[in-house]
Design brief:
By secondary structure, this protein is mainly α. Helices cover 35% and strands 3% of the residues. It is built from 13 helices and four strands. The strands form two sheets. It has a two-stranded antiparallel sheet with strand order 1-4. A two-stranded antiparallel ribbon has the order 2-3. Helix 10 packs across helix 13. The two termini are 21 Å apart.
C-alpha cells in the first residue's frame, strides 16, 4: 500500500508540474538516462556478460549509472564514485592520491574501473581487501576520508528521494532500498565500462590474415609486443586481455631506505603474510595513458619513468618480488615499450555524468 501511494504521488507531481518532464511526460532525469541494451564487449574482449553468475541487466545498469554519479550518497553531498573514478581518465584520476569530503587526502590513487566484469582472481582495491565489485562499491561510502557516510544514512537518503523508488522496482522487482541492491546496481554499471578495439587489438585481429601488410603503426606495436613478452618480461604480471594477473607484487614503491620501512604496507595489512609487505595489486594496462601519475601512491609521473623503474630493478627492500630484477633495456627499447602501451588505448568505456538525477 505504501509503495502504491508513493508511486501515485510521484506521477501526480509530474502531472502537476512538480517535476520537470518532456512533452511525453517523461521526467527529465529519465530522458537523460534512458533504458538501453547492454553494450557488446569490444574487439579484444573475448567473453560476454552471459558468462557471469549474476549478469547485469539494462535496469540495474541504468540505476547504477545514477548512483555512481550521485553525490548524495556521500555524507555532505559533495563526493560521488565518479569524483575519483573520472570517465575522462579511464575511471581513475589525474592526481597522485584521492580527495574525499572536506578536502581530505587519502594515501592511495583511485585505480581505474575498466574491464572489471571478468577477473582472474576476485581482488579489488590496491590491497585486495574487497572480494567482489559489490564490496568494492560500498567501501568508499563508509570510509571517513572518502565519502564519509554510513551505509544506513546512505539508504535513508535514497529512501527520501521518492523518484528513485520506481527504478529499484524496475531493477529488482520491489521498492526495497538496501546496501546490497545499491552495491549491485553500481557494480553492474561498472561492469559495462569496457575498453577494447585499440590499435593493439586491431593489429592482433589482422596480423594472421592472408595477405596482411603491416602499417608503420603495426610495426611499432609488434616491436613493443615482442619486448613486452620477451626481454622486458612485462607479461610475468601483465597478462591476458586486461594485462593483469590480479595478484600482488612488491616493486619497492614507497620504501624508505633510511627508516627501512614502508609508509604503506599494502597487501600485508589484509593477509598478514610477511611476503606481502609492500605488495600491491597489478593494475591493468588498458587506457593506461589516461591516468598518470602511476603506482598506488601516484609517485611516478610518466609511463616512461615507470618503465625505467622496472628497468633498474625496482627499489631494493627485504620483500622485493622475485620477478623484479634489472632488465638492461636500451633507450630505444624503453621507447618501444611506451609506444606499445600507448597502443592499448581503445574505446567503449567512455561516459559522462547524467545531466539530471531522480528527485
Amino acid at each position: 500500500m505504501t509503495r502504491t501511494l508513493t508511486l501515485t504521488a510521484f506521477f501526480l507531481m509530474i502531472a502537476a508540474g512538480g517535476v520537470r518532464a518532456d512533452e511525453a511526460g517523461v521526467p527529465r532525469w529519465e530522458a537523460a538516462n534512458p533504458l538501453a541494451p547492454l553494450p557488446k564487449p569490444p574487439l579484444g574482449i573475448d567473453t560476454t556478460f552471459d558468462k557471469l553468475k549474476d549478469p547485469p541487466t539494462p535496469e540495474t545498469v541504468r540505476l547504477g549509472r545514477w548512483l555512481f554519479f550521485d553525490k548524495r550518497l556521500s555524507k555532505d553531498g559533495t563526493i560521488s564514485c565518479a569524483t575519483c573514478h573520472q570517465p575522462q581518465h579511464a575511471f581513475s584520476e589525474p592526481t597522485p592520491v584521492s580527495t574525499g569530503i572536506h578536502g581530505q587526502k587519502g594515501n592511495r590513487k583511485a585505480p581505474p574501473v575498466i574491464n572489471l566484469a571478468w577477473t582472474i582472481y576476485p581482488h579489488f582495491f590496491w590491497d585486495g581487501r574487497a572480494t567482489s565489485l559489490e564490496e568494492q562499491a560500498l567501501g568508499p561510502v563508509a570510509n571517513p576520508i572518502e565519502m564519509g557516510n554510513t551505509h544506513e544514512a546512505m539508504i535513508s537518503t535514497l529512501q527520501s528521494i521518492h523518484a528513485y523508488e520506481k527504478y529499484f522496482v524496475e531493477a529488482f522487482g520491489s521498492a526495497e532500498i538496501s546496501k546490497e541492491r545499491i552495491a549491485k546496481a553500481i557494480a553492474d554499471y561498472e561492469r559495462t565500462r569496457m575498453s577494447g578495439n585499440s590499435p593493439y587489438d586491431q593489429w592482433q585481429n589482422q596480423r594472421y590474415i592472408d595477405g596482411y601488410q603491416p602499417t608503420e603503426q603495426h610495426k611499432v606495436i609488434a616491436k613493443g609486443f615482442e619486448l613486452f613478452n620477451g626481454k622486458a618480461e612485462c607479461n610475468q604480471c601483465h597478462l591476458g586481455q586486461n594485462f593483469t594477473d590480479s595478484l600482488f607484487h612488491n616493486l619497492g614503491i614507497g620504501w624508505d631506505a633510511e627508516k627501512q620501512e614502508f609508509g604503506d604496507i599494502g597487501r600485508y595489512e589484509i593477509s598478514q603474510k610477511e611476503e606481502d609487505k609492500g605488495a600491491f595489486k597489478t593494475p591493468g594496462l588498458r587506457e593506461v595513458t589516461k591516468h598518470a601519475p602511476y603506482m598506488h601512491d601516484g609517485s611516478i609521473k610518466t609511463l616512461r619513468e615507470t618503465v625505467e623503474h622496472y628497468n633498474k630493478g625496482g627499489n631494493p627492500n627485504p620483500w622485493l618480488s622475485k620477478k623484479i630484477r634489472p632488465l638492461n633495456l636500451t633507450e630505444e627499447e624503453i621507447d618501444a615499450l611506451v609506444a606499445f602501451m600507448e597502443a592499448l588505448d581503445g574505446e567503449g568505456y567512455m561516459d559522462t555524468a547524467p545531466v539530471a538525477f531522480p528527485k
